[in-house]
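Sequence in, structure out. Go.
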Amino acid sequence: MSADPQKLKLVKELGRPEICFSLARVPQTSRVFYGASDGKVYHVDFAEEKPQSQAMDGHSSYVSGVALAGKRLISGGYDCKLIWWDAETRQIVKAVENAHAKWIRNVTATADGKFVISVADDMLAKVWNAETGDLLHTLSDHQPLTPNHYPSMLFACNTSADSTLLVTGDKVGHIVIWELATGKKLGSVEAPGLYTWDPSQRRHSIGGIRSVAFSPDNKLVAAGGIGKIGNIDHLDGPTRLEIFDWRENKKVHEIQDDKLKGLIERLAFDPQGQWILGAGGDHSGFINFYSAADGKLIKQEKFSTHIHSFVLNETSDTLYLAGHGKLATWEFKADAPAAAAAPAA
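Output:
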C-alpha cells in the first residue's frame, strides 16, 4: 500500500553550517551520508537522540553527489574527482582524480549495486563498475553549447528500479534514456520549457533539468526544474514538472505551480506508482506530491530552507532531506487509533 502524502509530518531537524547538496542512506537504517559545500562528506545517524555529523575528508570543493552501492560509498564533486569509500570504515578505497573534465553535478547508483553513474559539465555521463571503480561506458548525446552558444550543463541522472535503464537531463531540456548494460541510447525527449534565456538584459540563461526519475514500470520519465523566469538573477519562477511516455516520445503531463516557487531539485515515484514526490526551492523550500494518474498537485509542504536532495526509506514512509544548512526527517504518520467508547451505563 502506498504511503498517504496527507499524513506527512516533520519529525527531526538538524542545523548545519554547510550547504548539504547530496544525500545517500544506508539500507535498513537511519544512517545517511551527505556531501557538503565545505568539500567534505559527512555521516550522521538520525536514530541518535542528538545526531552528530562526522566528517570524511577527500574532496577540495563542493561535494555535489553521493551514492551507495553495496559496501561502497561513491562521492563526486566540483573538483572533478570521484572517490570510492568503504561505507563501514569510512576510509578511501579508490580515488579517480580527473573522472570528468568539468564539475561533476550528480552521482547515482543502481538498486542492485552493480553500476555507478556520474554526470558533469563536460556533458558526459559515465558508467562505472561500483565495486572496482573501472570505467565501463562513456555516454555522449548532450551538446556542450546551448542554442545561444554558451556552455551548457548536465545536472541530472537517475536509474530505473530494475537497474536496467539510465536517464540523463541537461540545461536546455534534452533528456536521454540509455541501456545501462551496453551504454546504448534507447530514446530521447525534449523539455525546453525548463530553460530560460534572457536575450536582452543579461544575456544569460538559467533553469534546466535538475531532476529526473523513472516510473516503477519504466514506462514514464519525469523531469523537474523551474518554468520561465522573469528575473533570471533569482529563482523567481514556477516549479515545473514534465512527464513523458518516452518510448512513444509523448508528453503525458505538464505541471506548473506559482504558489511555492523555485527548482524541483529531486524527484521520486512512489514504488506503487500512485504519486510522484518532488522537492526543491528558491530561498526557502517545498515538498510537493503529484498524482501519477493525472499530474495534479495533491499535497504541498513548506520547508524553511532550499532542499537539494532527499531519499525515501524502503517502505516509503520516512523521508530524509538535505538542504541549505539543514538536514531533516519527515514521516508519513498514521492517525492515532480512536479511543474506545465508554460502556453504556
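Check: The longest strand covers residues 8-25. Confidence is low (pLDDT under 50) at residues 336-345.
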